[in-house]
Amino acid sequence: MINEPNDGGGPLSGLRVIDATDTLGAYASRLLGDLGADVVRVEPPRPRGKPRAETNLHRMFMHAGKRSVTLDLEHDAAAGILHRLLDGADTLVESFDPAWADARQLDPESLAHEHPRLVHVSVTPRGRTRTDAAAPEDDLTLLASGGLLHLGGYPDAEPVAAYGEQSTMAASLFAAVGALVALLDREVTGRGRWIDVSAQECVAQAVEDSVATYDLTGHVRQRLGSDPREAGSGIYPCADGYVTMVAGRLGTAKAWKALVAWMVEEGVEGAEELTAPEWSSLSHRQKPESIERFGEIFGRFIAPRTRLEMYRDAQRRGIALSPVNDVAAILADPQLAARAFFVEVDDPELDHPLTFPGPPYRLSATPAQPARPVRPVGADLEQVLGELGIERDELAALQRAGAV
Amino acid sequence: MSVSPYLSGLRVLDFCWVGAGAFVTKMLADLGADVIKVESHSRPDNLRVSPPRRPGTSGLEASGYFASRNSNKRSFALDMRQPRAREIAHRLAAESSVLTSNFRPGVLERWGLSYEDVRRDNPRIIYLTMPMQGASGPHSSFIGFGSTIASLAGLMHLSGLPDRPPVGTGTHYPDHVPNPGHALVALLSALYHRERTGEGQAIEVSQLESTVNVIGPAILEQSLGESVPSRNGNRSATASPRGVFPCRDEDWVAIACRTDEQWCSLADVLGHPEWTDDVRFSSLEARKRNEDALEALVRDATPTCDRATLVRLLRARGVAAAPVSSSRDVLEDEDLNDRGYWQRVQHPVIGDMAVAGPPFRIDGERPVLRPAPLLGEHTHAIARELLGLDDEEIERLVAEGVLA
User: Fold this and answer.
1) How far is CA B97 from the centre of its chain?
2) Active-site residue, B30 included
């Protein structure tokens, strides 16, 4: 199967992106590719001195639709091919080790000199200025140094990280933003820029009001956990999992009344008690004994009910309650189904179609295209090198030399 | 003070409030766009009444949360309940390149500012909306908060310890990274398309659909059918130990070992070289099998360690390690400060405060941050420049409660 260069008509059609990322930054070129750019992923024929951290699932999601070539950049001939690729490219997204890149003239200054129109995006754990940048990092250490990890988890246990390599997601999202800002700027100035993305800084975008709180009041925010902070707001167990609810605070006073009326109507044991005037006050609902008592009454109410029943019936009454969806429930979500969000992708290496999330945005004139299957590593080598005018004989020689 | 040049020439009429939307237009403003934030004294942005506040300050101008999310914007006071105000908004939309909103579906339409209304006079407009679950579908009018999206999209269910209720990120994470990030990628791509073709368009970012993408690999895992994604604390299939451990002074450290060599270095640094002779821990597979025992050993060894020293020793030995940075640690972080991530700005009411700009540098530089605007601070200037009104007309509209 030949994977044609991307000409799906997206807003970025006609752009070429070279993706030389390791794990950090990989989602950036996935996004640019689905928006119409031709993305060529450059991978080492074997890991460059460190083990591959990515799992197969990660690879299938992050690299979906990219063309794949293998280049051993330790080899002069391969580095020459990379430069020829960059001559014809608009953007390079890489997560090279800085010292390694400096030694091979793949540093920002050399690249700007060789390819003045190239938008060069480097994605590194803590920015390219970091002196011990070679020390290994992990999603966990990046969430830690960016401040998000400290806010997650239960008050009586160690901090717990967000699921799903969110440091990669954050770094990739802002790498794509930086690339696009520089591409827009290039329309005016005619020259490329160097975008120096720090994954730590990208994670630090997520610390909410906690830094402002410390800066202005000296208070260091701690993790809050999953226990309700007041009667009516928090996570509650039901028949098939959990629901989250905010009823009573942040301008939802009506929702609290609606909730109590609903439980009374259903004849829930103890619900009448909640109609007493003191329950209308936030300070009463925040007392530990109130939280516990409400939990008993509400718990009886929802124990036999499912997440989806609670979701629909509560929303009909104007109560901000939602299911805590597991992945099967997301795949069955009526709203996502009605909007035909999920896409089935035929992966030639699998015996049944894979379900991908649909594009994260809907553009009216130039829609993003749905995910395409991931390409085997190196599958597009001959095609991409052919576009550079490298014929089969020459390719065979490069392969013999171990450059590709 | 110099203004960042990258997006200069871009005017954004901004109806975004509170969370995700405000972060989109902050990025545009920080990079040089003229962002006109529309709000009114009768209905100010909810974030203006949110803590933190510096002790001794109060009122709509004192919120540190608002100030940290609205740098470099201009504020235009306009009471959209007045018919005259809607006319003015329509004229401003005609003078803008971009219109942004995260109101509930239907609000802009009621004001005569639907995409069709705006494009009639301004066919080049890029019109970005960010509804919770999209403008169509059975749940399009459902209510919720940032944490609701995390619940619906699976992040809540998947984050936490396996034997305890889900805990999520402890923040409204979708508001801070996935949704502003995806919205910016779509918006900047549409601007790039318009630069080349002149064509404008509408963009809809359903916050639910956007957030499902950041757990993309979990959707694929479920669809493959070999395993079911579940919450697993800080553990991962590719590293062991991988966790958060206590240090002296109630500090926490994050550590991840992918290789046997890193495990040996960890044992050595913690003063227990004998651990490496234990067959239970002799390979990644073995360590995964005996992870409870392994983590217990590490957890017993770290509490006497000074965190900074431990991190330095481990990183020097090639082990991924980082402090679990609190809000104070993040504000004082050496890398973040060396790279100019935090800038001190002088806010007229709050005084000296830290604000973060974009999480990347462009050609080694940071855009200069100006403090968030006071409510209506730029009403007169914008009315003169863009509406061509003279001072007398402006004063009359202020007195009539239109520019108010």
Assistant:
1) 23
2) no
Q: How many CB atoms lie within 10 A of CB B293?
A: 12
Whole-angstrom CA distances from A321 to A132, A255, B141 are 47, 10, 13
From the number of C-beta atoms within 10 Å of its C-beta (0-12, 13-18, 19+), residue A348 rates as: exposed
Residue of B nearest to A202 (CA): B359
Contact B321/A140 with Cβ under 8 angstroms? Answer: no
Q: Per the structure block, which two tokens stand in for A325?
A: 């969806």
Tell me the two tokens of residue B348: 């007229």
DSSP secondary structure code for residue B282 in this structure: S
Residue B130 to residue B205: CA distance in whole angstroms: 5
Inform me whether the C-beta atom of residue A103 falls under 8 Å from chain B C-beta atoms.
no
Paired tokens of B378: 């730029």
Could you tell me which of A61, A183, A78 has the C-alpha nearest to residue A121?
Answer: A183
Q: Is the pTM of this model over 0.90?
A: yes
Other CB atoms within 10 Å distance of the CB of residue A231? 25
The amino acid at B18? V
Place of tokens 């429930």: A329
Inter-chain residue contact A162 with B168, CB threshold 8 Å: yes
Handedness of CA A126, A128, A132, A138 (dihedral sign): positive
Going residue by residue through chain B, which has 404 residues, state the pLDDT in tens, using 9 for 90 and above.
Answer: 355 789 999 999 999 988 899 999 999 999 999 999 999 999 999 999 999 999 999 999 999 999 999 999 999 999 999 999 999 999 999 999 999 999 989 999 999 999 999 999 999 999 999 999 999 999 999 988 777 899 999 999 999 999 999 999 999 999 999 999 999 999 999 999 999 999 999 999 999 999 999 999 999 999 999 899 999 999 999 999 999 999 999 999 999 999 999 999 999 999 999 999 999 999 999 999 999 999 999 999 999 999 999 999 999 999 999 999 999 999 999 999 999 999 999 999 999 999 999 999 999 999 999 999 999 999 999 999 999 999 999 999 999 999 99
Which DSSP state fits B254?
A: E
Q: Which two tokens stand for residue B16?
A: 């975004």
Residues of chain B contacting residue A333, judged by C-beta atoms under 8 Å apart: 152
Task: Please give the residue of chain A at the shortest CA–CA distance from B133.
Answer: A335
Q: Which of B221, B321, B350 sits opposite A216 (nearest CB)?
A: B350
Strands (E), B43-107: 74-77, 98-101
A186: Cα within 13 Å, side-chain hemisphere: 22
Nearest residue of chain B to residue A237 (CA atoms): B165
Tokens matching residue A296:
């008993």
CA distances from A176 to B207, B300, B391 (A): 19, 42, 43
d(CA B356, CA A201): 9
**Dihedrals phi, psi of B278, to nearest 5 degrees:** -75, 120
- Which residues, including other chains, have CB under 8 Å from residue B218's CB and lie 6 or more apart? A163, A164, A327, B154, B158, B229
β-sheet bridge partners, residue B128: B100, B203
| Active-site residue (options: B175, B268, B300, B390) | B175
Residue among A240, A246, A241, A300 nearest A268 (CA):
A300
Reported ipTM: the value is 0.98
